[in-house]
Design goal:
Elements (H helix, E strand, L loop, with lengths): L2 H27 L2 H31 L17 H28 L3 H26 L3
Length: 139
């Protein structure tokens, strides 16, 4: 595995931990009618993101590298619309990064890593669609 792929996998782990914590914290903090409608979705999405972090860490460890334990910066806002917009942007950034990881892994002949990220990318696209849809209903 190249140093670049190792770095990108650790960035992916840090990103997955970030949004897992971020979505869980948002799940805990939001209340009211709009918060009530997003609470369970945030919780479930956070759990799925933590599972992604675990899968990537297991893959990185299998490849002989040490997974990071530090998440990217976490954002929790006082405004539901700003929060969901940040979540949507985080998913967009993940989709872009994961497409790059897939290309790099394929170019290095690491089919397993490429397949792992293809599967995760599908989930991230669903999360992006979810946050985009939730934003449509928020004033």
């Amino acid at each position: 595995m190249s140093a670049k792929l190792n770095e990108m996998l650790n960035q992916a782990i840090a990103r997955e931990m970030q949004v897992a914590i971020q979505y869980m914290w948002q799940h805990v903090e939001w209340s009211g009618v709009q918060g009530h409608t997003t609470k369970d979705v945030l919780h479930d999405t956070g759990v799925q993101e933590m599972k992604h972090a675990e899968s990537i860490a297991e893959r990185l460890f299998y490849l002989g590298e040490k997974p990071t334990t530090k998440p990217e910066p976490i954002f929790v806002m006082d405004n539901l619309k700003a929060m969901l917009d940040q979540d949507r942007k985080d998913e967009e950034n993940a989709m872009q990064m994961y497409k790059e990881i897939i290309k790099l892994a394929q170019s290095e002949g690491d089919v397993t890593t490429a397949f792992l990220f293809m599967d995760i990318l599908k989930d991230e696209e669903e999360h992006h669609d979810l946050f985009t849809t939730l934003l449509e209903g928020v004033m």
